[in-house]
Specification:
The protein is α/β, with parallel strands linked by helices. It has 4 domains: 224 residues, Rossmann fold; 65 residues, no CATH class; 111 residues, Molybdenum Cofactor Biosythetic Enzyme, Chain A (3-Layer(aba) Sandwich); 87 residues, Alpha-Beta Plaits, CATH 3.30.70. Helix content is 33%, strand content 17%. The chain has a 7-stranded mixed β-sheet with strand order 1-6-5-4-7-9-8, with helices on both faces. α1 crosses α2, α2 packs across α5 and α11 packs across α14. The chain is globular and about 85 Å long. About 24% of the residues have low confidence. InterPro entries: MoaB/Mog-like_dom_sf, MoaB/Mog_dom, PAPS_reduct_dom, Rossmann-like_a/b/a_fold.
Length: 620
């Protein structure tokens, strides 16, 4: 490790507090794992690395090769002439592991591992780290720990960027530097995957392998590969700069009801990557406390007002997919969530299939704060929602005595209540749907035909056993993750499994009752936030049928361009368009939580066209 500085080098060993996030469920590609299936992981990443780096390399003599033909160079440049700029952030963390993948493949082809899996973790690439006094301690710690874990050849620079690079490149000639720059970064303007350094800077090639990666791509990589990352991202930071201009993203705030200090969701929970830099607010006191400080066009207002939780809605039912039943509960839920400041990120209908339900829940459970699941609850063969929940969370269905008591009260207290009152074999037989179907010729108190069935059970006993079997089936709930939410107005408590809310409502009237009860519960998972505000404008700019077709096309392109620009300038506002009929006017909908921002966006749109081109339909 070398240092370019006017002061003494900080000893990496002095950073005792760990900042690497490796939970039990997130372990995988870390330094402590010596027997990982790295070949599988790296081979899976080879295509990604070649696609990202190869797009730029394809323009030159290397023709998309990650490693040169000789095996001694890196994309046509010797390994000693390339460097990696690492700053401890999520983007450069992704790039580090892509470079590790390339290095692994290179060493594997060279046959250099000799069966030693510990050496797989090493990636002795020259690494540049610009350390400043304004850096977060967690960033410094994570950088040093990462460098030690992967044997990075770390050059620490404590000068400004330009002077530091000039000094470093004089001492160690460097032809190319790998950067974690992505489109959307302030310094990404005009850059391509291979871009020469700017005029006035030391000459080198800037290599941007993940330039076209999105915010979601970055986090999908980190979470899928289970690589360590800086702990600040688990505290709501989505884009990390200095301690003076960075704070947790208010959109990830979890308001505390008692007024205590707010908590924040992890960075990967941010649903809209355009708001990644919303936490880059200046931490300076305003001269006038009544004037909110602006950052990236977003006000530094009360996070309780600006933050938003997200929910998914999953309806289960083959009949909905067949078109024989109209699904109305989902639309009603969307409106109710919108009214309390929640955003619906996903709504889907799946068939009565355990795997389909489990797959949807697997996909959404880490992305949304709450998932509403309804349909397919009960004792029928098609009622598989609870089994799908259990599979998604990796638990089994087990009897819940408390829930069975409620069912016994509803269905009638038949039998002695002894779970062993009937032979286990008989109960298991009767729990099978095919067996139950054979006995549907039974009526209460008598049999159509002989007085006993083939199993030798009397008709009356058969009915009691069947009811008990149904009750036991309905009382099977996901083990260890189920919470029953009680309310005086509910005959049966609501079922909550982790962040999955199961609704037994079959129509909007029943949903109204369950929703009201859910909001009134002290332990309700629904936190009521600042409501969404909307404004609708109507225009017939598209429908000037008497204008020449060419002019009409120009007008369409013009309004589309203006709306696209507005979406970029107002990332905190959803701007959508729809028509009630093909011949009708275009309706433009602005939805957000800041009325002033909505008014400003709609005003800018109106100013771009002639007076009277837009008329306001509604606002609220």
């Amino acid at each position: 490790m070398s240092t370019l500085s006017c002061s003494s080098r900080i000893n990496p060993q002095s950073h005792s507090g760990t900042s690497i996030h490796v939970g039990e469920e997130k372990r995988g590609w870390g330094a402590g794992d010596t027997l990982l299936p790295l070949k599988f992981s790296f081979n899976g990443l080879k295509v990604s690395l070649e696609n990202q780096v190869g797009k730029g390399l394809g323009k030159g003599p290397a023709k998309g090769k990650v490693m040169g033909e000789s095996g001694s160079d890196f994309g046509g440049v010797s390994f000693q002439q390339v460097a990696f700029s690492f700053n401890g952030g999520k983007d450069s963390t992704v790039l580090l592991h892509l470079l590790r993948a390339g290095y692994f493949l290179y060493k594997e082809e060279m046959g250099s591992f000799n069966g030693n899996m510990d050496s797989v973790l090493k990636c002795p690439i020259r690494t540049i780290y610009f350390e400043t006094s304004s850096a977060f301690p967690e960033i410094n710690s994570f950088t040093y720990e990462t460098a030690a874990s992967y044997d990075l050849q770390l050059d620490i620079i404590r000068l400004d960027f330009k002077s530091g690079l000039e000094t470093l490149l004089k001492e160690k000639p460097t032809k190319a530097i790998f950067l974690g720059t992505r489109i959307g970064d302030p310094n990404a303007i005009g850059q391509e995957q291979f871009s020469p350094s700017s005029t006035g800077w030391p000459p080198f090639m800037r290599v941007n392998p993940i330039l076209d990666w999105s915010y979601r791509d970055v986090w999908a990589f980190i979470l899928t590969c289970k690589v360590p990352y800086c702990s600040l991202y688990d505290k709501g930071y989505t884009s990390i700069g200095s301690i003076y201009d960075t704070e947790p993203n208010a959109l990830l705030c979890i308001p505390h009801q008692s007024g205590d200090k707010d908590n924040f969701k992890p960075a990967y929970c941010l649903s809209d990557g355009r708001l990644e830099r919303a936490g880059r607010a200046k931490k300076l006191a305003s001269k006038n406390e009544n004037i909110p400080i602006m950052s990236n066009g977003l006000k530094n207002t009360n996070p309780h007002q600006s933050c938003s939780f997200s929910a998914s809605i999953i309806a289960v039912g083959d009949e909905i997919l067949f078109g024989s039943v109209e699904e109305k509960i989902g639309a009603t839920l969307c409106k109710k969530l919108y009214a309390i400041g929640w955003r619906v990120s996903h709504r889907v209908v799946v068939g009565n299939d355990i795997d389909l339900i489990a797959d949807e829940l697997e996909h959404r459970k880490c992305k949304d704060d709450l998932i509403f699941l309804f349909g397919a609850l009960g004792p029928l063969h098609s009622d598989v929602s609870l089994a799908g929940v259990a599979k998604a969370f990796g638990v089994r269905l087990a009897p819940d005595e408390e829930f069975e008591e409620y069912l016994r009260h509803i269905m009638g207290n038949h039998g002695t209540g002894n779970r062993n009152e009937v032979e286990t074999v008989k109960v298991k037989e009767l729990c099978q749907i095919d067996t139950l179907r054979k006995h549907r010729s039974c009526e209460r108190g008598r049999l159509i035909g002989p007085g006993r069935d083939k199993s030798g059970i009397r008709a009356k006993d058969l009915i009691l056993i069947t009811e008990r079997a149904y009750r036991m089936i309905m009382a099977l709930l996901p083990e260890g993750i189920t919470e029953l939410l009680h309310h005086d107005k509910l005959v049966v408590p609501l079922i909550k499994c982790c962040n999955v809310m199961l609704l037994s409502a079959t129509n909007t009237y029943e949903l109204e009752q369950q929703w009201d009860c859910l909001l009134q519960l002290c332990s309700s998972p629904l936190v009521q936030l600042g409501p969404f505000i909307s404004k609708q404008l109507s225009t017939k700019l598209y429908d000037l049928q008497y204008i020449l077709l060419l002019f009409l096309c120009v007008m369409k392109v013009e309004i589309a361009a203006v709306l696209s620009k507005l979406c970029l300038d107002f990332p905190d506002i959803h701007i959508g368009c729809h028509r009630q009929s093909r011949a009708g006017p275009l309706i433009i909908n602005f939805v957000g939580k800041d009325r002033e921002r909505i008014q400003l966006a709609s005003h800018i749109l109106s100013q771009k066209f002639d007076f009277g081109a837009f008329s306001e339909l509604s606002s609220g």
